[in-house]
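idk why but the lab printer keeps eating my pages so im just putting this in chat instead. protein + nicotinamide-adenine-dinucleotide:
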Amino acid sequence: MRVSSVSLHGISNAHPSPSTANPSGLSYLPSHESSAWDMYLQQIDRVAPFLGDLSLWVETLRRPKRALVVDVPIHMDDGRIAHFEGFRVQHNTSRGPGKGGVRFHQDVTLSEVMALSAWMSVKNAALNLPFGGAKGGVRVDPRLLSDGELERVTRRYTSEIGIIIGPHNDIPAPDVNTNARVMAWMMDTYSVNQGSTSTGVVTGKPIAIGGSLGRREATGRGVFVVATEAAKKLGLAIANARIAIQGFGNVGSVAAELFAQADAHIVAVQDHKGTVYNPAGINAKALIAHVERHGGVFGFKDAQSIDKDAFWDVPCDILVPAALETQITSLNAQRIQARLIVEGANGPTTPQADDILAERNILVVPDVIANAGGVTVSYFEWVQDFSSFFWNEEEINARLTQTMQAAFASIWQVAKDKQVSLRTAAFIVGCTRILQARALRGLYP
Ligand code: NAD
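predcted complex ->
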């Protein structure tokens, strides 16, 4: 079973072409709404009129600086050799080294990684972190690999992209289906190849090898912090608010726990295995334990199982997409009941859906602010690794909260001043900083 599935996801089989690939699986969507890279380009078109003299440089944002496609061959446990396709894209490094996660997923494409790397450039600049944007991925379903196979994929991929990553060049981190264990293998592989231990080459590592306290929870915590700030603007109390969450992994599950601790009610959760609904509230800790045992939310006994598509109709106050791109589209944006959407995922809302939500007066806190908690604590981790001096968790969480609140407040102000959406405001701030750096550095030669 495992072996035949692996061959399905090996490079030797046909892939969708990058321009039409759609990680959401919503193949019935119009193509301009289904490609993450197209979405990003449309977002740049929307911000371009606000860039003033810097618009001379705007084409920089439409072109990744560097993209590497690598073959990742490994020995499978059954003796076969399987090949997987890997990517690392450095979208922009004008403000500092590339920074962004690594995704292991069966639908990963170059075009998707390009979009994710570009959103990292905008995010890091919007938060004023001293990084450019990068992202990586391997086209593999890690659930179909043994532990040994997963380690071999990780190590070979790291070795292949080793020519462009490094603590001063480009620093990977966890993303979908990767975690601290994968980061430990990446750090070790890079270090062995370099001949010396390099803790700063990846973030999101285990604490024992230079990881930071609070990093695992940081993205979900950041989502909770900005949701609280945005809710205040709407006069919406978090206590008793009804929350619907799509994606119950690192980001979604931590956000759920924090909402629950603040007395909100988690009314619906969807993951790749199912959708569960309980208007009286789902116990987040119990659901996390269920997912650990069963690999997904399906079958959770204290909630009713509902149809995948019915998730979008659930009565709720706050919706947190925390799974994959292109989930909120022109096909479901009209049905969403929430007053506030906080994007834990990268690129969950298409520009067409953005327009519908704006018309319906539903506030969207965009990914480049809402899920920036992860890269913010990654920055803290990188700084701690370089100084070999580690901070306590209280300090980290306090700095994270302060950074996220300040970023939200400044984006809110720009949105108000320029009468634009929070997404366009965040892009104005982020893209302006990137292009200022670009213009100051000038062109070589
Ligand atoms: P994860 O692998 O820990 O969890 C992903 C979750 O999404 C799982 O619950 C999975 O079942 C669910 N999912 C996958 N496909 C789905 C589908 N088609 N429908 C519904 N649910 C589906 O990943 P994560 O780290 O939590 O990342 C989630 C999102 O947050 C991604 O968009 C990622 O880029 C973004 N993000 C993550 C971080 C981070 O620090 N991990 C930081 C910023 C942004």
